Amino acid sequence: MMLRIPGLTDGGREIHQLTEHLDLMPTLIEAAGLSAIPRCPADGGLAVATCTQGISLMPLLEPNAPPSRAVRNASLSLWPHPGVGAPQCVNGAPAVDAEGTPCAAEHGTLQFPGSMGFAMVLVTGQRYIEWVNMSYPSWTPEWNQLRAREYYLNSSNDRNLGAAGVATPAQEQEMDKLSAQLHAAASWLGG
């Protein structure tokens, strides 16, 4: 994220560090001199009235902050797969059903209906994504029901090394480490 805040930085310097949208609230609260909102507990804050998963970005904005200063070592995002409800393909089925809806097995955007994508971007530029089934309505990831995983070495790498048979043994080990990191980062969801 490039952050430019006149009056808070040295004339609008660019800061290239990982942030998340949820970091904006604690940053603005600290910048305004208000009392900080407490961090959410491990359960995601289900039992408290107000808490935040965000981290104030003010340490990045200090006048003499080194450009390498970071507040996060990874950024997490998740989203439901857009293929929920897509008709399932059957051997020899046409690419679309009678209403013109593409069937799930023949279109990459619809291949994991009902799953959730958990993505993590690291300061190194690596991207790691797991598609897992979810337990609804609790929105709990079923980590043992991994549908697929994607692994990209850097932000400009468009080659998914998580595809079956593509990764080297060393990359497979790295994906296993990233999987553990992702699960820990998303632990407040349960599962």
Q: DSSP helix count?
A: 3
What is the β-strand count? 4
Uncertain stretches of 5 or more adjacent residues: 105-110
Kindly report how far apart the N and C termini lie.
Answer: 30 Å
Instruction: Give the class from helix and strand content and strand pairing.
Output: alpha+beta
**Share in β-strands:** 15-25%
Radius of gyration: 20 Å
Mean pLDDT: 77
Order of helices and strands: HHEEEEH
Q: How much helix, percentage-wise, in residues? A: 10-25%
Strand order of the biggest β-sheet: 1-2-3-4
Major sheet details: 4 strands, antiparallel
What's the short version?
By secondary structure, the chain is an alpha+beta fold.
What would you say this structure looks like, in words?
The chain has 191 residues and is of the alpha+beta class. It is built from 3 helices and 4 strands, in the order H-H-E-E-E-E-H. Strands 1-2-3-4 form a 4-stranded antiparallel beta sheet. A hairpin with a 4-residue loop joins strand 3 (127-135) and strand 4. The longest helix is centred in the last third of the chain and has 17 residues, at 169-185. The two termini are 30 Å apart.
What are the key terms here?
single chain; about 190 residues; alpha+beta; four-stranded antiparallel beta sheet; 3 helices; about 20% strand; flat
